[in-house]
Amino acid sequence: MLVDGDVSYAVRMTRVLNRLESFILPKIIAKRAVKEYPANLHLPEKLISAAQIYLKVATHFVQTARA
């Protein structure tokens, strides 16, 4: 990853992306992809959050395609 600008913002963004990857990737893959997999992330919360993320992405994609 290449950072251009404030390092503190880059660190925050990296943490956000790690959390996002924890939600959308299967646990086996996410544990290898992120630095620290959240210990308090249980399956129901993971499924609901992942569904919401995918729904927002799909909605945004459809809205962009219409424009």
Describe this entry's structure for a reader.
By secondary structure, the chain is mainly alpha-helical. The protein has one domain. The protein is 73% helix and 0% strand. The protein contains 3 helices and no strands. The chain has helices at residues 7-24, 27-33, 43-66. The radius of gyration is 14 Å and the shape is flat. The N and C termini lie far apart (32 Å).
Précis, in short:
The chain is mainly alpha-helical and 67 residues long.
Helix proportion: over 70%
Characterize the overall form: flat
Distance, first to last CA? 32 Å
Describe the largest sheet.
none
Radius of gyration: 14 Å
The topology string of helices and strands comes to HHH
* Number of strand segments: 0
The number of helices is: 3
Overall mean pLDDT stands at 89
Number of domains: 1
Structural class: mainly alpha
Poorly predicted runs are none
Strand content: under 5%
Provide keyphrases for this structure:
67 residues, mainly alpha, flat
Layout of strands and helices, then pairs:
Elements: H1 7-24, H2 27-33, H3 43-66
Helix pairs in contact: 1-2
